[in-house]
Amino acid sequence: MKTTLTIAAAILMAGHAFGDFAELVKQGDGYDAQFKPEAALQYYLPAEKLNPNDASLLVKIARQYVYRMADLSGKADQLKSGRTALAYAERAVKLAPKESDPHLAVAICLGKLSPLLGNKESIEASYKIKSEAETAAKLNPKDDFAWHLLGRWNQELAQIGGMTRAVAMIVYGALPSASYDEAVKCFQKAIALNPNRLIHYVELGRTYALMGRKTEAKQFIEKGLAMTNRDQDDQGTKERGRKTLQTLD
């Protein structure tokens, strides 16, 4: 009788925990949708304590630590938040290696961290960004942002020269091949999959600008600028687009 009551109590407690977990995640999702990372973390982090092995939750937590980087003024604080985000994303990959989102999260975290890193670390991050984004695209070929990241990777690496390329030659022997043409293909793929995300158009336009194709550059950047902001980075994307347009006049 005592054993039966103990089992029943355990089941009841587990039910309460699951209910609390679901409610905490739901509340966090509401703030995530509003791009309020600090508020979202107030719900996601307690939810993690109830279920630390939920990969989708770990991806959401990683996203908040990436979001909050924009609100931090000091490089040290930005690095700390970015590395925390990366740690959560890498945990998610270990728990769910066959799912696309954790791999995409790792690539995004590294992309946000790269500008804050030294040459050697930045090069190492670049290799992993490409690998994780390719894995994400392979696991979910319809994920437009995975293709976008591959486009950005090609766009950024095609511009690398000088000291960074020299360091890469010393450490790795060579940099992976990248090109503006490949970036264009990836951004076009991203647009085909999700024509409602303005960042795809602006970055495609910026790639054309780097290629000296001013007409296409203006066309796509202006299209992106005319779209409504929907994602957390849209305002910053538009600022990059406007700066590029100024160089085309």
Structure description:
Mean pLDDT is 89; it is low at 7-16. The termini are far apart. This protein is mostly helical. It contains 12 helices and no strands. The longest helix is centred in the first third of the chain and has 32 residues, at 2-33.
Output the keywords.
mainly alpha, single chain, 249 residues, 79% helix
List the helices and strands and how they pair.
Layout: H1 2-33, H2 37-50, H3 55-67, H4 75-95, H5 100-113, H6 119-139, H7 144-159, H8 162-172, H9 180-193, H10 198-210, H11 214-225, H12 234-248
Helix pairs in contact: 1-2, 2-3, 3-4, 3-5, 4-5, 5-6, 6-7, 7-9, 7-10, 9-10, 10-11, 10-12, 11-12
Rg over C-alpha atoms, rounded to the nearest angstrom: 21 Å
Average pLDDT rating:
89
Q: Order of helices and strands, N to C?
A: HHHHHHHHHHHH
Tell me about the largest β-sheet. Answer: none
Q: What structural class is derived from the secondary structure elements?
A: mainly alpha
* Overall geometric form: globular
**Which residues sit in consecutive blocks of at least 5 with pLDDT less than 50?**
7-16
Number of helices: 12
Helix content: over 70%
